[in-house]
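Task card 7
Instruction: Convert sequence to structure tokens.
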Amino acid sequence: MNIASGMINLAMKDMNKCMLVMVASAMLLAQTGCKKGAGTSVQDPIPVNPAPPVTEPVKSEVAMWLTQADQKQLLQKQNTALIFGSSLNQNLTINVDTAKTYQTIEGFGFALTGGSASLINSLQETKKAALLSELFDTAGTHIGVSYIRLSLGASDLSSSTFSYDETPGDTELKNFSLDKEKADLIPILKRIIAINPKIKILACPWSAPAWMKDNNSFTGGSLKVENYGVYARYFVKYIQSMQAEGISIDAITPQNEPLNPYNTPSMVMLSVDQGKFIKNNLGPEFQKAGIKTKIIVYDHNADHPEYAVAIYQDKDANAYIDGAAFHLYGGNINALAPVHDQFPDKNIYFTEQATFGGGDFGGDLAYHTSNLIIGATRNWSLNVLEWNLASDPQLGPHTNGGCTTCLGALTISSDFTRNVSYYIIAHASKFVHPGAVRIYSDLESTIQTVAFKNTDGTKVLIALNAGPDASFNIRFNSKTVTTSLKSGAVATYIW
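Output:
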């Protein structure tokens, strides 16, 4: 009995110890927030993880939006404190001066080709609505495209060649019709106008109807002299018919790339012929019909600025002309300013430059920003338009003989992705609004810039770092702010 009693007393002591350990363990688990089944021992509790800190937006006088050549940042707003102050440093300084003003900006955008319209219209409705808002609205993260270019008839980025009157000899244009545009282009245009009623639209033919030409073909050839009159009325019909659809055409050019006979469609129109067409036919027909649509000449590369000058020098043609349009597949962007200087009452427009499939994002970003966004506007252009708004994954649609390598700003299949042209234009269109005035800013070989003042008083500086990684200053009203850009990066600064 004594042995048994001792064993019972010992067992009771051990049970009491166990109970104390279990109670202590439970209390510790409760204090640390651990739960049953977590596998946590008394000696190794899991600490409570604090909630991640909320990142507050940094207070900044200057907003900065950045795109990097390596695509690690794409039109990304920076959470960086950029405050104007009086401190000086040894960095390169870019001066901005609102007292020196230049041209008034009409907008930035793309060509809405027939192929682009069909691809956008093929999207599921929710995606289509979201994309159109993103492109043409100005609120929030939208990029506020404010200027578009249309082809009057087919361009080479239409699925086939066509005109608005395919009836040979129909000099009274009884069979003129926009029906070919009513499936995709006109519905998309109406939705764009509903989003942005003030959008500027320029229209341009790649070719006259084949029956009006001396080779009866959509490729090459020239307009027959005897058809100058009917072709001028063809433009009038187009503008009136688009207006009847609620679409106002702000400007036209008589011919896309008039010195290029190799595209499909295409048509040669030498400067002497374009001058005659304008002064004898197109201008008078517009005047007779009460049409206020601007007539812009040339619409081709910067390597032949004398084309526009020759037409300007004909005073009868000059009276009908608003300005000249340029591309940059040849020549130098600095050829535009001398045309303005010689005829300062005539406007300069930049209406086309393509990016291509297989191109380098960083290289295209730098070249187009340097030559178009910065270069064209510093050479008096009122607008900047990249070429095709949208292409499919195979870089279509296009005509048989059209561009097979042109890359859209968007690639569209069942969804859409954004390509380099999107960001090139967005760095201007989102921040530089129609009515903005270009103002003075320094242009350095490494930090290239252009500056604007919006109608609401905000200032915009677009900068490209064409050199190695660098810090630099922006100086405005005797105050300086310091910023930095990686090599090849583009930034838009707003204050």
